[in-house]
Design brief:
single chain; 163 residues; alpha+beta; four-stranded antiparallel beta sheet; 21% helix; 28% strand
Amino acid sequence: MINYTIRAIKHSEIHLLEDFIYEAIFQRDEMNLLPRDVINQPEIRVFIEEFGKPDDLCLVADVDGEIVGAVWTRILCGEARGFGNIDDSTPEFAISLYKAYRNKGIGTALMKSMLQLLKERGYKRTSLAVQKDNYAVRMYKNVGFEIMKDLEEEYVMVHNLNP
C-alpha cells in the first residue's frame, strides 16, 4: 500500500503537466514509444498550454513530496479542441500516473476527487476520450463515465455530475 496525498497542483508544479500529458498518451507498443515531441501537436498541446486559466483545474497525487500522478480538466473550446470535446462548456479530462504507480488505486482516487471538485464548482458534466483498447476504459466506467460516441478507435465518454 502506497501512502499518497491528493491535493491541488501548485503553480510551481504546472511544468510537470508536460510529463503527465506524455504519460497519458496510450502507447500500444512499449518497445516503440512515440517520441516525446508528440506533445507539441496542437491537439495534444491544447491540454497543457497556458494552463492556469479560471476553468483549469488540476489535482496531483503526492508520495513523500514527489508528484506521481495528475488529473486535470480544461474547457477546450478554441480552434484546437481535445479529442473528447463535446461542447464549449464541458470540462475535458486528462489523467496519468507514472508507470510504477499504476494499478494501485491512485488513478481512481484522483478521478473521484476531480469529479467531486467539478460538482462543487457547479459543472453539469465532464468528458474524455479514450482508446477502445486502453485498460483505463474499465476505470472510467467504474467511476460513472458512459460511452457517448463509439468512434473507430476510441470512445468519447461523459460523466453526468448532477443526475
